[in-house]
Automatic annotation (TrEMBL):
<dbReference type="GO" id="GO:0005524">
    <property type="term" value="F:ATP binding"/>
</dbReference>
<feature type="region of interest" description="Disordered">
    <location>
        <begin position="1"/>
        <end position="23"/>
    </location>
</feature>
<keyword id="KW-0067">ATP-binding</keyword>
<dbReference type="InterPro" id="IPR017871">
    <property type="entry name" value="ABC_transporter-like_CS"/>
</dbReference>
<protein>
    <submittedName>
        <fullName>ABC transporter ATP-binding protein</fullName>
    </submittedName>
</protein>
<keyword id="KW-0813">Transport</keyword>
<dbReference type="InterPro" id="IPR027417">
    <property type="entry name" value="P-loop_NTPase"/>
</dbReference>
<dbReference type="InterPro" id="IPR003593">
    <property type="entry name" value="AAA+_ATPase"/>
</dbReference>
<feature type="compositionally biased region" description="Low complexity">
    <location>
        <begin position="1"/>
        <end position="20"/>
    </location>
</feature>
<dbReference type="Pfam" id="PF00005">
    <property type="entry name" value="ABC_tran"/>
</dbReference>
<dbReference type="GO" id="GO:0016887">
    <property type="term" value="F:ATP hydrolysis activity"/>
</dbReference>
<dbReference type="InterPro" id="IPR003439">
    <property type="entry name" value="ABC_transporter-like_ATP-bd"/>
</dbReference>
<keyword id="KW-0547">Nucleotide-binding</keyword>
<comment type="similarity">
    <text>Belongs to the ABC transporter superfamily.</text>
</comment>
<feature type="domain" description="ABC transporter">
    <location>
        <begin position="27"/>
        <end position="254"/>
    </location>
</feature>
Length: 406
């Protein structure tokens, strides 16, 4: 019998095999521009998405997220620039791209007067899937097996979204491109979609996920890109973007300009909001078709200090403030007692009790969490839950954007 894991999961590397060289990005976007009438909706957008990532594409309504996705899904040709999916140019070979992507648009319609199984069998036939057993595998993976004989019209909004995900998995795509997949869902349906995305990532899928609701993305994304007024403000792993912002804050606190050449690995762009208007006014002026940037070029190009004349004296080293992480501890008994034992400990920045939970700010790695738990257990305080606080993405978004709309 064909199972979901055997059908949709990648094979593990052989034991003892040599470490492979870094894989090329699964999604590669370079100097992407698009214009509707006389308005540029995408302006020189460049980023990468590595294999196996869940990449959150964030921005307000009208920022250009859906336009970017339609270009990636071969539904819209870019005015200038280049987009590659799994090494295939979306403009030169759109048919090949469609074989490796699963695209789920925002507010996609479904056929109501057929059953769930009939719906999936119809699209399996449309995709020319060789074996009908794939439908059983998809039903198992998306937990729709118990509903396979139900009419689609009788399903909730969340179940219809789950059915849409099942549809795009039928041909086992390598890349999933999802435009606002949790839009208009109730809290339970949002959680179910989030868990399904994590399971799909575990099966080796690369997921490109757009949203303007940060709470949808904070628990699932490995990397993010923030778009505002058609321009990419920042892109990369969340913790590396956070480290860059910490460096900027530390520099400003000591009266220095931000270090112009400090670009954490994986961060493709970090443009201060105040310099957002410094980008070229048109793709023709930027020469976007002729060249592709090297990693970190967007930072140097938009940072005025990068091209400033050298100073007579070497600048003093800029103190780097340690990044503060936060965790919530749920304890048995009195949380005030737990807070008392943690205050003043090495690496502990702040401790307070709120809502029956102990909120702790600390510096260092996740090993510090294990040390805190061990410390409390040795003092006969039981720990029943440990949950990192998920406000980092909101802080980054507010810090690098200006709130402008097109």
């Amino acid at each position: 019998m064909v199972t979901a894991s055997s059908t949709f999961g990648g094979s593990a590397p052989a034991s003892g095999a040599a470490s492979p060289s870094p894989a090329p990005p699964t999604i590669r976007v370079r100097h992407l521009w698009h214009r509707f009438a006389n308005r540029d909706v995408l302006r020189d957008v460049t980023f990468d998405v590595g294999p196996g990532e869940i990449f959150g594409f964030i921005g307000p309504n009208g920022a250009g997220k859906t336009t970017t996705i339609r270009v990636m899904a071969t539904l819209l040709e870019p005015m200038a620039g280049r987009v590659e999916i799994d090494g295939i140019d979306v403009t030169l070979d759109p048919d090949a791209v469609r074989k490796v992507i699963g695209y789920m648009p925002d507010h996609a319609g479904v056929y109501d007067r057929i059953t769930v199984r009939e719906y999936l069998e119809f699209f399996a036939d449309s995709f020319r899937v060789p074996s009908i057993s794939v439908v059983d595998a998809v039903l198992e993976l998306t937990d729709l097996g118990k509903l396979q004989d139900r009419l689609v019209a009788e399903m909730s909004k969340g179940m219809k979204q789950r059915l849409q995900l099942a549809r795009i998995l039928l041909h086992d795509p390598k890349v999933l491109i999802l435009d606002e997949p949790a839009s208009d869902l109730d809290p339970r349906a949002r959680i179910e979609i989030r868990d399904l995305l994590l399971e799909l990532r575990g099966l080796g899928k690369t997921i490109f996920l757009s949203s303007h609701i940060l709470t949808e993305l904070s628990d699932v994304c490995t990397s993010i890109g923030i778009l505002e007024r058609g321009r990419l403000v920042v892109a990369g792993p969340i913790h590396e973007i956070s480290a860059r912002l910490e460096a900027i804050r530390a520099a400003e606190a000591h009266g220095h300009a931000p270090p112009p050449r400090y670009v954490p690995p994986g961060v493709r762009a970090l443009v201060p909001a105040q310099a957002a208007q410094a980008a070229p006014a048109s793709p023709e002026a930027a020469g976007v078709v002729q060249s592709a940037p090297v990693a970190g070029a967007a930072v140097a190009a938009t940072d005025p200090s990068a091209s400033a004349a050298p100073q007579p004296q070497a600048p003093q080293p800029i103190p780097q403030a340690p990044s503060v992480r936060r965790v919530k501890l749920r304890v048995l008994g009195n949380p005030e007692a737990a807070a008392y034992f943690l205050r003043g400990g090495p690496g502990i920045v702040e401790v307070h009790v709120m809502g029956g939970l102990v909120h702790v700010g600390y510096t260092g790695t996740e090993t510090k969490i294990a040390e805190m738990v061990t410390h409390l257990v040795h003092r006969n305080i039981g720990i029943v839950g440990v949950e990192p606080e998920r406000n980092e993405l909101e802080r980054i978004f507010l810090e690098v954007t200006r709130g402008d709309v097109q």
